[in-house]
Amino acid sequence: MNRAxxxxxxxxxxxxxLAFARRDGYECYALSFDYGQRHRIELEAARLVAxxxxxxKHLVLAVDLRAFGGSALTDEIAVPTSRSSEExxxxxxxxxxxxxxxxxxxxxxxxxxxxxxxxxFMGVNAIDYSGYPDCRPEFIEAFERMANLATKAGVEGSTAxxxxxxxxxxxxxxxxxxxxxxxxxxxxxxxxxxPDADGRAxxxxxxxxxxxxxxxxxxxxxxxxxxx
Length: 228
Ligand code: ZN
Description:
By secondary structure, the protein is α/β, with parallel strands linked by helices. It has one domain (3-218): 3-Layer(aba) Sandwich (Rossmann fold). It is built from 8 helices and 5 strands.
């Protein structure tokens, strides 16, 4: 069976991406990061999602990005709330974590090489997103080129590494529809950047706003608490 490393945050997009990889017949090795994120509760969501979608293994790797800080997700900086889509599309918000996807993909690449997996799946999205530079197709394409230069498997030509981002050009509503079609249990997923002590979504951060927009436009009820 074809192996794939699937980056899994515990949010909506990465869950749908994992379900997509499973549907395509991959044996999936799910990878999450305990990076000092404010919304650490997503790791429990990731565990449940990996289990429910039949991942072969789920690994949570600790990489303390709070040591650098520099983001509202990893530092004492307030998470912006109630922003309009115009505000979201104007510039890079403080919830951007410096070089996060480069770091995550690099670690996924290392695991993929050990597993002899030729595919890495990542649920990045460049349509309904928060303006992060490392969610763009240009970045993914450049990383894929680099991956094939950087690895033993790439240089020896035994396997060409592919970074698969099936959601990259989809709207959030399309992602919700695809998730429903693939049988993703949305109630397990968590998207909020700034949940309360009980893990309930704030309903106002960019991630909550985008999630709500996606469910609303898809005409699907979001089973997760205050994201409704
Ligand atoms: Zn929120």
